[in-house]
Protein 1
Amino acid sequence: MSKELRIGMIGYGFMGRAHSNAYKRLNDFFPVEHRPVLKAVCGRNTEKAAAFARNWGYERVETDWRAIVSAKDIDVVDIGTPNDTHFDIAIEAARHGKMVLCEKPLAMNVQQAEEMTRAVEMAGVPNMVWFNYRRVPAIALAKQIIDEGRIGKSFHYRATYLQDWTISPDVPQGGAALWRLDVNAAGSGVTGDLLAHSIDTAMWLNGPIKRVTAMTKTFVTERVHAVTGEVAPVGIDDACMFLAEFANGSMGTFESTRYARGRKNFNTFEMNGEAGSVYFDLEEPEYLQFFEYQQQQSGKKVESHLTGWRKIHTTNSEHPYMNRYWVPGTCIGYEHTFLNALADFVMGIESGSPTQPDFRSALQTQKVCDAVIEAAKKGAWVETGAE
């Protein structure tokens, strides 16, 4: 008999939908003991929250998140709300002994992230941050290739994350739909929203980022606030570029913007090592490109006479996660990255081996994000303190 995993979802927006879909499909694809039960969803707008609950099958609606974190029939508190709310909800959820899942970035700043990490660790509750791109099969395969030593000593890591949806000065800031443009709700702009993903992936693949120097830019400095209707200064960064030095001595370049006309969610990385390279592009998520300079022959690594980039179609059953889905040659999508993440979390609960990234891992990403913002203000190199 399956064990119930009773879910309290806080937030009914984009991430609320993505997470809810994962809960509903988990047992269809992964043979885990636990079965998610959608108990409650919380939102400030009762009508919209009720419509969300009816659509996804939640049993009840709450308008105060405190009712979720204190409820006796909730096992997991899932935080899918704007960044400025993560801290209070996570602290209280841990205090009530709930498992805590949190959207990225973990917090508004390092101080909050440290307190949140202490809270879940002191409470001993399972926790995870939804850095879902780790669960793209091609990216997980890149991790496998790197861990197998096929890249060798790392020299370079470069990442881009480009969008174009805020170019018009008529786009307002704030409110339920555009809180990412309001510094009081988001904490930062592309650094926390987009580069947090790039940083998490980079440190997962290439180790800690030791120090950074950065430049940020706000192209539209004033926007109408969606709530007040008044023109207000824009406090977030529209674009960010930074240089990084990794603890292993390799160099990194990172670029993110919401002003790259024609780019909707262009997320790429390339890693170059002594023995090979990997390249990934989210616009072709089913592919990983791999360049192998050396091959194993007669127990020795020798220069290959067949060098060249391979475009690996990561849909075979031996590729990460793909044995749970379709036949080779058929692709999975964005929504499956959340399903894969949830499956890893639940399997971690059942095996006693917690999944990553947990709050402590996300704290390291927060340290780099804060260092990037500080470096941009100072115009100097800043140590991250990331581990």
Protein 2
Amino acid sequence: MRKLLIIPTCLLLLAACDNAAVKPPETLATATLPTESHTDREIMTLLERGNFLTERTRQVTAIQTVFSRHTTPERARNLAALCFSKTSGTPFMPFDLAEIALAETGGNRLSGKAVSPRGARGVWQVMPERARSHGFTAQDMTVDEKCAEAAVRELFTKLEMAQGDLERAKKLYCGQGPQANAYLKKVRNYRSEMHSVLEQAQKRMASASMAQPTFRTR
């Protein structure tokens, strides 16, 4: 008799929330056995996508915490949500977009009105000509949602230039030369800060779990 696999409803809902065409990282790839049926493979895909979405959600929580150190709690929450939604269905994770925002305008309270001496605008500091190449106007970059979308498109362009090297793509997002090297160092520092927040949250959860009383049955 064939065994039935029962999937919790929450995992199905998580899978439905993010219908990304991009495959999850290789670490989550499904290892299909010759004896597996099509249904078994579909079930495993749903379960793994659930794990993938859980990681994206965890990242958003860390992003919000770090963003709140630079701006108001409400703005931190809204920008963190954009990092999640605008990277959905792309090769990027929320951290990728958050790192750029922090490197670009973290010292300027993540202001959507920020304008660089060269004319780059918005939280993600997109240059006017680059904004136009992605279907936006320079003024659009003062709107957080449009700026985030343009930033993702620009990062994808840089990823193609970097032949899939995401670290180099982030450096190219800034430019080249010593300034770009310093920029990449800032990106890495902010990434470490967000990962530290994640680790602290995991430790708190582990401590809370160990502190829960256990009940013995006679």
Protein 3
Amino acid sequence: MKKLIISVFTIALFASCGNKKENNKVEEQTATKAVEEAPKAKKVLFVLTSHAELGDTGVKTGFWVEEFATPYYILKDKGVEITLASPKGGQPPIDPKSELADFQTASTKRFNADKETQAILSKTLKLDAVNQADYDAIFYPGGHGPLWDLAESKTSIALIEAFYTNNKPVAAVCHAPAVFKNTKNTDGTSLVSDKKVTGFTNTEEAAVQLTDVVPFLVEDMLKENGGVYSKGEDWSPYAVEDGLLITGQNPASAELVAEMLLKRLQ
């Protein structure tokens, strides 16, 4: 009787161990499957200007903080992975005027207190070191700087064309639609030809007294390239989307552009 009890106990023990191993195996397989099925975080490349001078005026320029910070935090807070790049790499120039008290917003104040993001910004990748295959979309913050460097950058032009031909969104706000000055479709036509677009208006440029300083006017260029240009009231939020192209009119439009881009990525 004692031997029988021991035998039964032993069988039960081995059965229990076997069940535990089987359960562990099932749990591991379930966990692995869950990881594999979990949606991968979307990746967006932000491209900032490296140009710091307003023509030959001696006045400093660069990128406009609000146009960087607002989309950056909207996307980041939704789990989007953001990589920063610029033509020269390193710290891109910030337009000093965008740091004035009159132009502060919730996003710029957050940026001013965000040492981590400031450190990341100081180490942007060189633009020629990035590959569109690594990202799901590309975004250009404005400021006057892009009128001089990114509008003419062969690297930036090729990158935008690569994103577009690979069915990935291309977004730009305020002066940043200047990057479409020389971009082409595969048939040689302008990338913005027959596309709904917007950008910094001629009247807004006149208001900041830089019409005769900038190398070209964003509104005029987009129209000359065949874009179906539209605009809202000066300094009011206004953005348009046409297929893969998303453009915003001015700093106040950065939030709209970011929301449109986020929706495209979801």
